[in-house]
Amino acid sequence: MTTTTAPAEPKHRPYLRPTRLLKSSQASALHPTVLAEAERRASSIQLRIADGITAFAGSMAFVYIHVVLFVVWMLWIERNPWPTLTLIVSLEAIFLSTFVMIGQNRQSAFQQAKADRDYADQEKLLVENTELTRTIRDLSQQIHDLTAQIHQHVVGPAADRGDATTAG
């Protein structure tokens, strides 16, 4: 009986951090729009900070740290009914929701840039295919004309005589 194992996940996720993505060995295999967006995000300190926070806030380490902090806070720091903890968690939720919106805006801008590039590529391919179709049609017409000329030259006059001799 054979068992299959899932591939091991990488220790870091370069796709979440543009600076890591640009340094990875897989960068050359990415869509040009992805690379352009990564370069734009890596060039701004504010965007790098936002990417770092969203990468950490979207990880299980973030969840584990918060579980431990909340348990410690509720059991040993503030007993009942945790008003300071409520305030801290509310403020954290405000900031994290802002980073979620930043991430959504980033994803939206990226998707729009990719869609624009894909549309331009499709339009270019359409023009190339149209030109190719016209060229093939023109070549087909030239081949047809040449075939008709060869037929006229080789078979044409004999066919006219052959029709007259076979009819009598």
Any overview of this molecule?
- The structure is a single chain.
- With 168 residues, the chain is an all-alpha fold.
- It has a domain of 108 residues.
- The chain is 79% helix and 0% strand.
- The protein has six helices and no strands.
- Helix 3 crosses helix 5.
- The longest helix is centred in the C-terminal third of the chain and has 72 residues.
- 4% of the residues are buried.
- About 3% of the residues have low confidence.
List keywords for this structure.
mainly alpha; 168 residues; rod-shaped; 79% helix
Shape: rod-shaped
Tally of strands: 0
Major sheet size, sense and barrel closure: none
Radius of gyration: 34 Å
- Which runs of at least 5 residues are low in confidence (pLDDT < 50)? 6-10
The oligomerization state is: single chain
Q: What is the compact description of this entry?
A:
With 168 residues, the protein is an all-alpha fold.
Helix-strand layout with pairing:
Layout: H1 18-23, H2 32-42, H3 45-57, H4 60-77, H5 83-154, H6 156-167
Helix pairs in contact: 3-5
